[in-house]
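note to self — DONT lose this again. spent like an hour looking for the file last time. sequence + predicted structure for the chain T wanted, 401 res
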Amino acid sequence: MRKLLFVINSLDGGGAEKSLISLLNELEVYKDHYEIDLLMPNKKGLFVNQVPSFVCQVTIPKALYYMANGYRELVRQRAFNIKFLWKKLQWTMILKKYRKQTSGIKEQLLWKVWKKQVLVLEKEYDVAIGYLNGYPNYFVCDKVKAKKRILWLHNEYQKIGYDTKYDRSYYEKADAIVTISELCKEKFLEAFPQYREKVFILENISSGKMIQKMARQGNTADMQRPDNAFIFLSIGRLVEQKNFKLAIDTAAYLRKKYLDFQFQWYIIGQGPLLNILKEYALQKKVNSFIHFLGVKENPYPYIKKADLLIQTSLFEGKSIVLDEAKILGKTIIATNYNTVYNSLKDGETGYIREQCPEAIGEQIYLCCSQSDTLKELQENLKAYASGNTKEIKKYLLLFEK
């Protein structure tokens, strides 16, 4: 049996995390060929319970556990190693100094601070996979004995703000570098043209069968539909990238221009901007039209119930939410970020509009007031109902290569 190790920060709600769960579930039919381990330093998250039983969750190196978890979790687990707590305090002080740096730079600094403390895993693997850019990739290169190392990149490299000099040595160690769209590949090669021969594109796995089944389950009682009101849905972490202020501005635009147009806009997700977004909705006087539902382990009944799936992102790698909405035959309106064209064909499988409330708002109103125009689009989406599980063959080829 070939031994595979997957490394990811956590299985909290996110596209990379969701795609890993789908991949692991698709690999179950190959469990007699692969012995699969999963290393997840932060064992909390929305999808933890969806890890299939044949996958072994390996013991986390102690220093890595302290690095990846917050003080509250350490206290809850009674983790009181003085050496590592002191290192964590050092990191907290360093972080204050670099608080204005990009998330990519902060993650590189995090690994620099902790790298010497983290022990190398004893077990040797045929293939070690860092499934998320950042310290999962660094850990696979520095702390795993493996015949082959595969590093994943789930976004446009430049958008995350990494120091290319620091990352160069890690990509040099990689046997393969995987990204999820043609544009993500192009952007990566702008930074690292020397690695063209070992860059591959693998789509995130979306299982139509699983998504259709889960869409028939679950309770959506917190997604109310008042009389004659349309239901809109957006999904994503409450962070700047997802641009939910645009959703609030669009709701305000619709309320001002179309007084009799009734709708309720629901947002699934959690994140640091929750209170800021709630306050902004209050300022814009649309707090009774915008509703934050938190995270949902099963978002598919919500997608199925909504009239429109609206994505307001500033950028994405390749949006798994859009792929899932297409599987469920949902009408999609998305902003014109760079990689959206890998997911949608404007007017054929969805609508792509400028990142402004007027453009998004007018398309929403048009979709809701002229439903006959959507019939052709709905017919086009039937081709996506089965998902892309055939993509698994490309994964297997890469693991075996």
